[in-house]
Amino acid sequence: MIKKILLNKEFGENILTRNSIASFFNEKINNLKDDEITIDFKNIIFISRSSAAEYLKLRENSNKNLLEKNMSNEVKSMFNLVEKQFRNANFTFTKETPCEIVESVVI
Amino acid sequence: MAINENFFGKINDLDESIQKHIKKMGFPYPLKIHIDRSKKMDEEINRLLIDIKTKIPKTFESSIPYILSELTDNIEQHSNYAEAFLFVRYDAKEKCLEIGVFDDGLSIPVVFEKNNINYSKDSDAIKMALEGKTTKQEDISRGFGLRTTRAIVKALRGEIKIISREGMLIISNSSIDIIDFKKGKLDGTMIYLKLKTPEKDLNIYPYLE
């Protein structure tokens, strides 16, 4: 069974700061034994630009396979924006796995 | 009340005219949040956002979480603060939202100095920060906080006042006033925003490009 993390439980309705995302990866994600983890954005209303950027960076640096789901349009818009900015700067985190999280399944 | 007294203790050495400016900005109002190092910034802001959710018009959409998150992230990332104060106040009669953020950290000019970024006066350092100058140039995701906040404020036909150490900028849709203090300094940075209520739902994303 794939491990699932409900972000609302970790952050509340809004994900607001880089530090909170960094703590989430350092203290939670990277310490899990599971290699595949579902990140559930259900009831996350807003993610800040800084937090979305930090999430994308740490996601690419993590050796875990993360699958995001249940992103609201608002949250998707922010990830789209940040990802576009990275792409415009010809910035890919790794050549093999460029960031592509905004097309995750919404259920 | 104690928080207000604490705050005003920090501005007593400034020019009287600047003190008046600061008091006019809204900090005499009851402060919503006092954050010190024992508290988690994101948890406190989340609490504030829940508190104001039903008290401000929905047409602001995500502009307020965006602005608060960027301003407080800047404090966390750069200022090395001991204390920060925040307020959000909606004036239903004037249909205006006011946001005030103060931190007692390094200030923008000092952060630039520590990172060998040249500027002439403190007001220049503030202007550079507003234009996106960042101490973390190697990270392309940096330098957007104040710049995009300014873009959203413009969209909301608002004004920004920023005081950092010995400089002050007052920005409205039509003008920028630049002030460098003759006497005293603010140990830290204070940002005040006054925003008009949008008539239609505000989509912030076109302003964040």
Topology:
The complex is a heterodimer of chains A (107) and B (209).
Chain A: E1 3-6, H1 7-11, E2 14-15, H2 18-28, E3 36-40, E4 46-47, H3 49-61, E5 65-69, H4 73-88
Parallel strand pairs in A: 1-3, 2-4, 3-5
Helix pairs in contact in A: 2-3, 3-4
Chain B: H1 2-9, H2 16-24, E1 33-36, H3 41-52, H4 63-79, E2 83-91, E3 96-103, H5 108-114, H6 122-130, H7 145-155, E4 159-165, E5 167-171, E6 176-180, E7 186-196
Antiparallel strand pairs in B: 1-2, 2-3, 3-7, 4-5, 4-7, 5-6
Helix pairs in contact in B: 3-4, 4-7
Question: Outline of this structure?
Answer:
The complex is a heterodimer of chains A (107) and B (209). Chain A is an alpha/beta fold.
Description:
The complex is a heterodimer of chains A (107) and B (209). Chain A is α/β, with parallel strands linked by helices. Chain A has one domain. Chain A contains four helices and five strands, in the order E-H-E-H-E-E-H-E-H. A three-stranded parallel β-sheet of chain A has the order 1-3-5. In chain A, strands 2-4 form a two-stranded parallel ribbon. In chain A, helix 3 (49-61) packs across helix 4 (73-88). Chain A starts with a strand and ends in a 19-residue tail after the last helix. Residues 102-107 of chain A have low confidence and may be disordered. Chain B contains seven helices and seven strands, in the order H-H-E-H-H-E-E-H-H-H-E-E-E-E. Chain B has a seven-stranded antiparallel β-sheet, with helices on one face. Chain B has one domain (2-207): 2-Layer Sandwich (Heat Shock Protein 90). In chain B, strand 2 (83-91) and strand 3 (96-103) form a beta hairpin. Chain B is an alpha+beta fold. In chain B, helix 4 packs antiparallel against helix 7. Chain A binds chain B through residues 11-20, 45-46, 48-51, 53-54, 57, 74, 77-78, 81-82, 85-86, 89, 91, and chain B through 40-43, 45-46, 49-50, 62, 65-66, 68-70, 72-73, 76-77, 140-141, 144-145, 148, 205, 208-209.
Task: Please tag this protein with its features.
heterodimer; A: 107 residues; alpha/beta; 3-stranded parallel beta sheet; two-stranded parallel sheet; 4 helices; 42% helix; 17% strand; B: 209 residues; alpha+beta
